[in-house]
Amino acid sequence: MSAGEKAKARTEQVVGKAVRKAAHAMGQETTAAKGAALEARGKARATKEGAKDGFRH
């Protein structure tokens, strides 16, 4: 996994979590769900890329 891919995955996780928490605090459940989806996508990307690294070595 390149440094850029790691950074993108981590950014999605952090931004998704921030959006989810802020939207939930303001009572905007639809936006909170979108933030949770973004966070999950970042986690999946990190897991997928991490698995690729394991097979390369």
Percentage of β-strand residues: under 5%
Q: End-to-end span in angstroms?
A: 12 Å
Instruction: Count every beta strand, where a strand is a DSSP E run of 2 or more residues.
Output: 0
What is the overall pLDDT average? 89
Topology as a string of helices (H) and strands (E) = HH
The poorly predicted ranges are none
Task: Give the arrangement of secondary structure elements.
Blueprint: H1 3-25, H2 29-56
Task: Explain what this protein looks like in three dimensions.
The protein is built from two helices and no strands. It is an all-alpha fold and 57 residues long. The mean pLDDT is 89.
Short description:
This protein has 57 residues and is mainly α. 89% of the residues lie in helices and 0% in strands.
Pick out its properties.
mainly alpha; 89% helix; elongated; 57 residues; 2 helices
